[in-house]
Amino acid sequence: MKRVLIANRGEIALRIVRACHEENLEAIAVYSAADRAAPYVRAADRAIAIGPAPAPESYLNIERLLAAAAAAGADGIHPGYGFLAERAVFAEAVSKAGLTWIGPPASAIRAMGDKTEARRRMHAAGVPIVPGTSEPIVDPGAARKLAQAIGYPVMVKAAAGGGGRGMRVVRGDDELAGALASAASEAQKAFGDPAVYLEKLIVAPRHVEIQVLADHERTVHLGERECSIQRRHQKLVEEAPSVAVSPALREAVGAAAVAAARAVDYRGAGTCEFLLASDGGFFFLEMNTRIQVEHPVTELVYGVDLVREQLRIAGGLRMTIPAGTPVPHGWAIECRITSEDPANGFLPSTGRVDYLRVPAGPGVRWDSGIEIGSEVTLYYDSLLAKLIVWGADRQQAIGRMVRALDELVLVGVSTNQSFHARLFTDPAFRAGEIDIQFLERRPDLLASAPDPALDHDLAIAAALAEAEERQTRRQVVTNGEPAIGGAWLRQARLDALQ
Ligand code: MV4
Fold this sequence. Notes:
Strand order of the largest sheet: 13-12-9-10-11-14-21-19
Oligomer: single chain
Structural class: alpha+beta
Largest sheet: 8 strands, antiparallel
Bound molecules: ligand MV4
Distance between the termini: 75 Å
């Protein structure tokens, strides 16, 4: 492999350009009309326009991407995350075009994409799965017996799902039929497949995921990432390691993740998601067959470059992970800085980045796709940058995050920066008392309460401004006589009194 086309945009495209350059590979960027001036486009060795701003006509368009690869003489394609990264048909089309697919085999993507098939394969491989059904529900009448056997509360999930769409919680027989119907209809709309199945509901678990790497000789894990701090299935903060994972538990969950990857003949970088119950039990949920947004926290505590390893493995080289069990060193935390306004229900905001001061200093990493002058639009997702810190322990990492967030200045677009500042000073978060419902319990962290001290300052400022106005008003003087041009004068007096 000599020349890699990056079928993505933003921070991950820039991350891949950098890894290519370190591996002496040329990097080819593709860009939509909205991304002409983006930093990743300038960082690449060559850039090719692939269409208008809407993703279906650019970053999701397989034909245009393959045409760009041919035009540039690329011999490999890295899909990044999102867009086409987990589409088996894209992996196949890339291989069919004679190019190297920098990702897992299409068969592994497909097996993990169907959640009921994944459950069957994981069960056969001895990977713990949540108690439930591993075949789609065909008969709503039979579903009642299955749900009773599992024990309420249960969850209805879409077989083609993932990321939280097409899921329903069911607390008793009376809710089951409705939940099956609505989940199936949502799954049909979202994935074109109405198949659903049942799982026992795990209450207030942590979300812990294991990073896996596999080359043609070895499959290894690089420990866990704690991803419980999320809102509506969007992760906001990730850490490695997890306060809830002991070295013994790490080895157990890690071994399960390695078994999961082996069961589908996995190659490259992948992530197995687990629910970690409050009693220490863990259950495989799904495997993400791509590089993930939060990969940097693993890189910092294991001293690896995961994108570099992806490039090596795709090129037929061995991964550079030494033999033996990799051990995490220190603590890493990532904040997703998004163009979402906590004061406005996390609605996406748009605009031009008028000013940007990037945090720096010991243990601080900034992976971003923006610079001063960047236009933030609604065409793509709201991730602007990832602020990642490393410290010798969790306390030092949190301290560095507080300091780095304090240094960060981003003007022109509303962001979720203030939410992060509140979170990292919160006693419960600092104590590690987190699970997937943490933010649901803490509306106080999500939205800033109006500060009464600020109201007071604003009232004084308004009074001073008013007094200043009065002082500088033009004086209207009359001697009691009806003034000439009376209507004009009356109006002038009126204006002066307002
Ligand atoms: C669950 C669960 C509780 N019990 N399954 C959400 C996304 C998808 N990956 C699976 N999800 C869940 N599955 C059972 N049996 C709770 C969730 C869940 C969740 C999981 C991971 C991270 C955040 C979450 C937020 C809400 C629900």
